[in-house]
Recover the amino acids of this structure.
């Protein structure tokens, strides 16, 4: 029986199956360790961590493709743009693009990855049957395999072999007894015998309490659920699937009916173009913003409607009617392209006068996408070979979107608006660029220092401080290339500004350093108190994983030196207080309170509590 169980275990848990189990656990653990702040800070918490997670995720599933022999050279058509989307998380902060990528990326991966497991996929077209089979048969089916996934993990952890079950049970019972005896008897007795041991044990106990806390339990539970879901997805998606073998898209459409409908639409369409010809090619825009907005947006929504209309018509008429109807379709597409060019021209005028914004940039990019799609559709009409229109349109979309994600959108918007604002007829408001993210923080500071942004009365200082705080509050793995570049340039600039005025002690005055005889070193008076008194350094742990490192000078308690977890260093003088110790700047925009083993900090004119519930470690 034991040998039979061992054989069953080896058969069920092959080398590749075990790799999948551990890979799913690894991805889930990585999420809760490095991406957990996403729930609080949203897309600003995605940087290096998102790059690594999504790269590992994509790499793991591509490995499954190879394992199943389903990976073809043509799969690079979707792997490359998805890889570009993943890289974009490391490149920029752009919150709009990141939000859209979190939708476009997973959906694109789901569609194309499962398409790789479609039986005879080279011979199948994307149609309604394919979509229903994909989303119902592959997405919903994941929930049906969650139970199987959970059972696999349980069977791997607790083997069916009775001998191993008993060994695991004995290990767990022994561990429980050890913990109970240690906490109830050993630790209390030994702690009362030695104060040093008591202090050491307390640190371990506090650490263990923190580990077993409710937040940790939530993360552990979430990781377990995520592991099961990932494995269920692998189990579901690694199987070949098929849909309606009878291809229904090849049935013919009545040429007379199709010709009348399509010809009638074309006549109405051409009539519309003829009536609107005076508005299509305008040399300037109205001064009134609302009038301009209506003029441009109407053309933009027309092109979107026409794009969907053309795709719809292609689905039902392309290569299914007579040659004459195909020629009408060719004329219809050419007319659509004409209106698209007109709308693009008006969008260009709009940008020249009013500058770029997120909306106008992506509207312009949509015009480019539609133009390429229409041009490709025109070419298809003069080629005899039938083409899968929907699949090609989707591939074109994810390629254009993938390229756009690695394009420096915000820097392009900022630089373009600065350049266009120099025109005499410009109606650009540079203050509207404050909608942008830390991607342009370095540019804003540079142009602000050069006086370029002082054409308006808008104060950029609060925006700069806000964006700098966003960058400073990030953990190292949440930062991206733009953040790292900004911090590196900032450090280099500071180093270039100081260092040429060392005194006889080697202290750099321009950096704020002066000689402290008592400490026999160079210090900054606002960061460190100059006294001969022996310092006592303590650390307070606060809410939000923040810390305060405080250095007190017993016997000369006129100042306290503080080092905060956000990087700030300052020396604060003591002030009169009714209870506890109160240290504050002269204008009271920074106050440090300390009473016993607790502390907190308030900042700003409104005394906002920025470091709360701080306890001595």
């Amino acid at each position: 029986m034991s040998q039979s169980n061992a054989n069953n275990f080896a058969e069920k848990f092959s080398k590749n199956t075990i790799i999948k189990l551990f890979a799913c656990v690894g991805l889930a653990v990585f999420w809760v360790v490095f991406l957990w702040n996403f729930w609080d800070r949203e897309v600003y918490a995605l940087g290096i961590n998102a790059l690594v997670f999504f790269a590992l995720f994509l790499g793991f599933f591509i490995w499954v493709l190879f394992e199943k022999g389903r990976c073809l050279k043509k799969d690079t058509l979707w792997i490359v743009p998805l890889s570009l989307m993943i890289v974009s998380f490391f490149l920029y902060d752009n919150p709009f693009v990141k939000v859209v990528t979190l939708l476009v990326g997973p959906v694109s991966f789901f569609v194309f990855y499962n398409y790789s497991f479609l039986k005879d996929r080279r011979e199948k077209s994307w149609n309604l049957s394919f979509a229903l089979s994909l989303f119902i048969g592959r997405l919903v089916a994941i929930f049906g395999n969650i139970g199987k996934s959970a059972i696999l993990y349980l069977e791997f952890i607790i083997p069916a072999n009775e001998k191993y079950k008993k060994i695991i049970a004995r290990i767990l019972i022994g561990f429980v007894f050890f913990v109970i005896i240690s906490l109830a008897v050993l630790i209390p007795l030994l702690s009362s015998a030695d104060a040093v041991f008591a202090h050491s044990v307390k640190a371990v106990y506090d650490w263990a309490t923190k580990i077993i806390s409710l937040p940790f339990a939530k993360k552990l539970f979430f990781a377990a659920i995520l592991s099961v879901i990932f494995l269920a997805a692998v189990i579901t998606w690694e199987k070949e699937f098929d849909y309606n073998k009878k291809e229904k898209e090849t049935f013919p459409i009545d040429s007379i009916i199709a010709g009348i409908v399509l010809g009638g639409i074309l006549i109405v369409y051409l009539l519309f173009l003829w009536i609107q010809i005076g508005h299509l090619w305008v040399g300037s825009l109205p001064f009134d913003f609302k009038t301009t907005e209506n003029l441009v947006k109407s053309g933009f929504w027309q092109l979107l409607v026409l794009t969907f209309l053309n795709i719809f018509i292609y689905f039902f008429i392309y290569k299914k009617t007579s040659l004459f109807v195909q020629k009408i379709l060719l004329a219809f597409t050419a007319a659509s392209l004409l209106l698209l060019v007109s709308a693009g021209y008006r969008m260009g005028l709009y940008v020249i006068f009013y500058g770029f914004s997120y909306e106008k940039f992506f509207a312009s990019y949509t015009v480019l996408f539609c133009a390429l799609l229409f041009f490709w559709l025109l070419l298809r009409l003069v080629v005899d070979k039938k083409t899968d229109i929907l699949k090609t349109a989707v591939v074109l979309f994810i390629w254009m979107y993938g390229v756009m994600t690695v394009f420096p959108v915000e820097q392009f918007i900022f630089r373009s608006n600065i350049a266009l604002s120099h025109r005499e007829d410009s109606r650009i408001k540079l203050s509207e660029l404050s909608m942008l993210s830390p991607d342009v923080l370095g540019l804003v500071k540079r142009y602000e220092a050069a006086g370029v942004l002082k054409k308006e009365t808008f104060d950029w200082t609060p925006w700069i401080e806000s964006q700098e705080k966003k960058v400073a509050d990030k953990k190292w793995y949440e930062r991206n290339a733009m953040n790292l570049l900004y911090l590196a340039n900032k450090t280099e600039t500071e180093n270039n500004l100081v260092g040429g005025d060392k005194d006889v002690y080697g202290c750099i005055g321009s950096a704020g350093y002066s000689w402290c005889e008592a400490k026999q070193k160079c210090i900054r008076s606002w960061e460190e108190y100059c006294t001969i008194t022996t310092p006592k350094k303590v650390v307070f742990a606060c809410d939000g994983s923040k810390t305060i490192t405080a250095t007190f000078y017993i016997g000369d308690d006129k100042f306290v030196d503080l080092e905060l977890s956000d990087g700030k260093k300052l020396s604060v003088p003591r002030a009169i207080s009714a209870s506890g110790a109160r240290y504050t700047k002269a204008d009271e925009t920074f106050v440090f309170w300390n009473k016993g083993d607790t502390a907190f900090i308030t900042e700003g004119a409104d005394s906002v509590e920025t470091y709360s519930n701080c306890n001595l470690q």
Summary: The first strand starts at residue 513 and ends at 516. The two ends are 55 Å apart (CA to CA).
